[in-house]
């Protein structure tokens, strides 16, 4: 890396790195460091009358040097703890370099160190470690954005969402509570798996690359397999493969995995997201509602210690049972229009009366979905099962046993967003084929989210699938609800981001055309002149002073250009 691409702090750290190596200290040792304690456990288990020997490792987060004795703070994977370091304890021999040179001068905030010593309580009552040996475990070359406090006000906070999500590793280090969110996410998944496993259901894995993007209405990502010379799709759902396994004889199967949808991004949507799908034979959507509300209550208690969660200042209760409301009743309740028995043309008229923006590609199901989304969905804060969807909205769902034109489907709404989608699954292969054909007709009209016909899935159904209920739960949204986070990016370790913006710069070849050599291009960039146009109005003496100053400061050893030479650069930049 060119030294001119580094900040002053980065240059100093690399100089310290080299000095450590010159002293015979490996800044990146390979040997195991035998830790036997964590910061939080040390504090929790402290006893006044016990001189407990510990070996701990972590990041150096602060240091207060006071002559021959100092205090430091290290951060391990569980928390932080204070360390008391004295020169003569860590340097018992005549050579005091480990304290005087390494600890006081060559270590930096962010370095990983190992401490062996004993636990004690300071005069101010803080549980600390009295260091008896210190080992450098890894040198940090970039400075951390350490938050500073003065009079209760925080400075230099690392709180820009763009930076936090792009550099999650830094976010986890310096911002309290971030790691806790992802520990809770892990608890959500652990509890869910245990709940399913105890019920006797089997976790499975199905293809991520699929020849038919089925199981949902969504726009897929397309890729190409060179060896087979075919286009493949990143899966938009796991549904059709999991149902194949029910056909094959599994009692219940579930998968927790990534789905991919080539659609918009906002605070509730990421193109790559985690979904759980579960299918159980001989069950229906009524059973699944009871199963689901108990599952969510169990997860909430495991994560939060109670059956409630706070989101956007609202307390959401996951105590079972949840309200159950037919979708057409919900629309009538919120808009005053009863869509029961209406044809597509009549629903279009309702949409016009409601001043909605619709287009000709939308079929009956899409129109109803749009009405519900605009006037109803956002109003359900407490968990509410919206049930009995029209058949046009549910191409994979069994017809309702007693309500013509409707299906046995529910969506679970929480805090105004869909959390789960479930059916009494369609297992009539002839009906399923007709539903697929209706979806293809929508695709022909221009609906790029309509389902394609999966002939192999139809073949599987023809072998016979038992009565089955299935559900999909959005894991990311569930974690948002359980942790009170208002954006999906807060619960994804590495959310999708736009390409990182780079400062526009003229190329080396472009600079060469006006007489600037490659060595001086980097110097000009370091001086703040990234584009040739940046120098056209600069005084030649000032530009010469700028570049010569960089040459001297960074000890580059270049022959400084004359004022006349710099003036020629400027003159050529105007051509």
From TrEMBL:
<feature type="binding site">
    <location>
        <position position="418"/>
    </location>
    <ligand>
        <name>Mg(2+) 1</name>
    </ligand>
</feature>
<dbReference type="InterPro" id="IPR004364">
    <property type="entry name" value="Aa-tRNA-synt_II"/>
</dbReference>
<feature type="domain" description="Aminoacyl-transfer RNA synthetases class-II family profile">
    <location>
        <begin position="185"/>
        <end position="499"/>
    </location>
</feature>
<keyword id="KW-0436">Ligase</keyword>
<keyword id="KW-0648">Protein biosynthesis</keyword>
<dbReference type="InterPro" id="IPR002313">
    <property type="entry name" value="Lys-tRNA-ligase_II"/>
</dbReference>
<keyword id="KW-0479">Metal-binding</keyword>
<keyword id="KW-0460">Magnesium</keyword>
<dbReference type="InterPro" id="IPR045864">
    <property type="entry name" value="aa-tRNA-synth_II/BPL/LPL"/>
</dbReference>
<feature type="binding site">
    <location>
        <position position="411"/>
    </location>
    <ligand>
        <name>Mg(2+) 1</name>
    </ligand>
</feature>
<dbReference type="InterPro" id="IPR006195">
    <property type="entry name" value="aa-tRNA-synth_II"/>
</dbReference>
<dbReference type="InterPro" id="IPR044136">
    <property type="entry name" value="Lys-tRNA-ligase_II_N"/>
</dbReference>
<dbReference type="InterPro" id="IPR018149">
    <property type="entry name" value="Lys-tRNA-synth_II_C"/>
</dbReference>
<keyword id="KW-0547">Nucleotide-binding</keyword>
<dbReference type="Pfam" id="PF01336">
    <property type="entry name" value="tRNA_anti-codon"/>
</dbReference>
<dbReference type="Pfam" id="PF00152">
    <property type="entry name" value="tRNA-synt_2"/>
</dbReference>
<dbReference type="InterPro" id="IPR004365">
    <property type="entry name" value="NA-bd_OB_tRNA"/>
</dbReference>
<keyword id="KW-0030">Aminoacyl-tRNA synthetase</keyword>
<comment type="subunit">
    <text>Homodimer.</text>
</comment>
<keyword id="KW-0067">ATP-binding</keyword>
<protein>
    <recommendedName>
        <fullName>Lysine--tRNA ligase</fullName>
        <ecNumber>6.1.1.6</ecNumber>
    </recommendedName>
</protein>
<feature type="binding site">
    <location>
        <position position="418"/>
    </location>
    <ligand>
        <name>Mg(2+) 2</name>
    </ligand>
</feature>
<dbReference type="GO" id="GO:0004824">
    <property type="term" value="F:lysine-tRNA ligase activity"/>
</dbReference>
<comment type="similarity">
    <text>Belongs to the class-II aminoacyl-tRNA synthetase family.</text>
</comment>
<keyword id="KW-0963">Cytoplasm</keyword>
<dbReference type="InterPro" id="IPR012340">
    <property type="entry name" value="NA-bd_OB-fold"/>
</dbReference>
């Amino acid at each position: 890396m060119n030294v001119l691409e580094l900040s002053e702090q980065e240059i100093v750290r690399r100089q310290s790195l080299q000095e450590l190596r010159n002293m015979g200290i490996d800044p990146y040792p390979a040997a195991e460091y035998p830790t036997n304690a964590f910061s939080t456990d040390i504090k929790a288990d402290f006893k006044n009358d016990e001189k407990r020997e510990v070996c701990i490792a972590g990041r150096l987060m602060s240091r207060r040097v006071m002559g021959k004795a100092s205090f430091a703070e290290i951060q391990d994977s569980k928390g932080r703890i204070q360390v008391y370091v004295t020169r003569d304890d860590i340097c018992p021999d005549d050579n005091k370099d480990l304290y005087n040179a390494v600890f006081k001068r060559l270590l930096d905030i962010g370095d990983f160190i190992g401490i062996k010593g004993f636990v004690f309580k300071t005069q101010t009552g803080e549980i600390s470690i009295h260091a008896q040996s210190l080992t450098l475990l890894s040198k940090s070359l970039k400075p951390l954005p350490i938050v500073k406090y003065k009079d209760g006000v925080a400075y230099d906070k690392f709180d820009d969402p763009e930076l936090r999500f792009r550099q999650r590793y830094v976010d986890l280090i310096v911002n309290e509570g971030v790691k806790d969110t992802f520990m809770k996410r892990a608890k959500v998944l652990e509890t869910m798996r245990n709940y399913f496993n105890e019920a006797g259901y089997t976790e499975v894995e199905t293809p991520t690359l699929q020849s038919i993007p089925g199981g949902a209405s969504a726009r897929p990502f397309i890729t190409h397999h060179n060896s087979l010379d075919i286009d493949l799709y990143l899966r938009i759902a796991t549904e059709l493969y999991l149902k194949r396994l029910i056909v094959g004889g599994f009692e219940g199967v579930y998968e927790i995995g990534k789905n991919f949808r080539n659609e918009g991004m906002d605070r509730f949507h990421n193109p790559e997201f985690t979904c759980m799908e579960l299918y159980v034979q001989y069950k229906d959507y009524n059973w699944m509602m009871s199963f689901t509300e108990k599952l969510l209550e169990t997860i909430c208690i495991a994560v939060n210690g109670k059956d409630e969660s706070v989101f956007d200042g609202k307390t959401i209760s996951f105590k079972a049972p949840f309200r159950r409301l037919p979708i057409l009743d919900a629309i009538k309740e919120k808009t005053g229009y009863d869509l029961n028995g209406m044809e597509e043309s009549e629903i279009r008229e309702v949409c016009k009366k409601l001043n909605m923006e619709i287009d000709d590609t939308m079929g009956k199901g899409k129109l109803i979905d749009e009405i519900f989304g605009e006037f109803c969905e956002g109003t359900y804060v407490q968990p509410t099962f919206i049930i009995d969807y029209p058949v046009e909205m549910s191409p994979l769902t069994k017809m309702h046993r007693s309500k013509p034109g409707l299906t046995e489907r529910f969506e679970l709404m929480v805090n105004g967003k869909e959390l789960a989608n479930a059916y009494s699954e369609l297992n009539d292969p002839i009906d399923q084929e007709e539903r697929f054909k209706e979806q293809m007709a929508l695709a022909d009209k221009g609906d790029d989210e309509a389902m394609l016909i999966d002939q192999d899935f139809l073949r599987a159904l023809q072998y016979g699938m038992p009565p089955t209920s299935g559900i999909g739960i959005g894991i990311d949204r569930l974690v948002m609800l359980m942790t009170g986070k208002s954006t999906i990016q807060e619960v994804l370790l590495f959310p999708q981001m736009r390409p990182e913006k780079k400062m526009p710069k003229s190329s080396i070849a472009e600079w060469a055309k006006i007489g600037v050599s490659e060595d001086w291009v980097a110097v000009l960039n370091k001086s703040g002149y990234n584009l040739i146009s940046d120098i056209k109005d600069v005084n030649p003496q000032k530009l010469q002073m700028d570049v010569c100053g960089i040459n001297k400061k960074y000890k580059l050893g270049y022959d400084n250009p004359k004022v006349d030479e710099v003036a020629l650069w400027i003159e050529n930049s105007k051509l």
